[in-house]
Amino acid sequence: MTRGLSGELRPAGAVELAVVERSGLRESSHSGAAVVLDPGGEVLAEHGDIDALLYPRSTLKLMQAVAVRRAGARLEDEELVLSAASHVGTSEHVRVVRSILDRAGLTESALQCPADWPSDPAARRAADRPERVFMGCSGKHAAFLLACSVNGWSTEDYLDPGHPLQLLIRRTVEDFTGETVLHTGVDGCGAPVHAVTLRGLARGIGRVVRGADDDSARLAEAIRRFPWALDNRTVRTVIEELGIVAKSGAEGVFVAGEEDGTAVAIRVLDGSQRPLAPVALSLLAQYGTVHPADAERVRLAVTEPVLGGGVPVGELFPVV
């Protein structure tokens, strides 16, 4: 098992990934690191320090969902996708989260993620108060609780790093990334988040999307069938239009993978989300099987516009 280099991504290890132009003048840029791996895990392209440690944030959910199935929680279809989701709190998302809790024989009070408002505007207007089930990670937490119920593990401390479920998740992350976990923090939802390298993250995602085992194969197929359940509009559009598996994470992390296991992982140093999908699409068009014309069409559909007086006056575009 390989080990990543110590230390987090710093400006010295970052390169320019995307720029924003307004009215013919470069206005800002986004720096970070990016890597593309082939189906065998070999590097096709690297930009910046791909061996610095980073928190995968919500991109880790893909491997956490695999671990939940390994624990015996046989989630399928939309329930399986919600176990890996950063959902936006619509009534359909909440319905599926509650169905997972019902299978565990538990109520929403067992969730240990923070209470939150739905991020979907319509659902937020309809909500009376913040609730834990509205939180974008509630599907993952419900799946955690189901895994505990299936195995007779305690549910009061299911987020403790020493809990049997969290130990299984850690081993699964190590299996898929090919790296020993050297550091663990606390994610925004309260769950443990394991630091990995960008290289290791891409390796892990490649193994998930190509279906390295039955559990990951079922997850990847479910995401392609139910992309509405997984993430925000940008990620959903990428999946629906191109048939690849993609996932975003807080603080500028993004992963995407083709069915054969070709995978890209990106970390933007300033934590911004806006350049992530455009950079990923550019790299897959260069080194994967995504047709450049299709990549450009989807890039234009998901890229935040540069407006002046309400009309387009510039654009954000990848430079890698």
From TrEMBL:
Domain of life assignment: Bacteria
UniProt cross-references to InterPro entries, sorted A to Z: Asparaginase_II, Beta-lactam/transpept-like
Pfam families: Asparaginase_II
PANTHER family: L-ASPARAGINASE, PUTATIVE (AFU_ORTHOLOGUE AFUA_3G11890)-RELATED (PTHR42110:SF1)
Record's protein name: Asparaginase
Organism expressing this protein natively: Antiquaquibacter soli
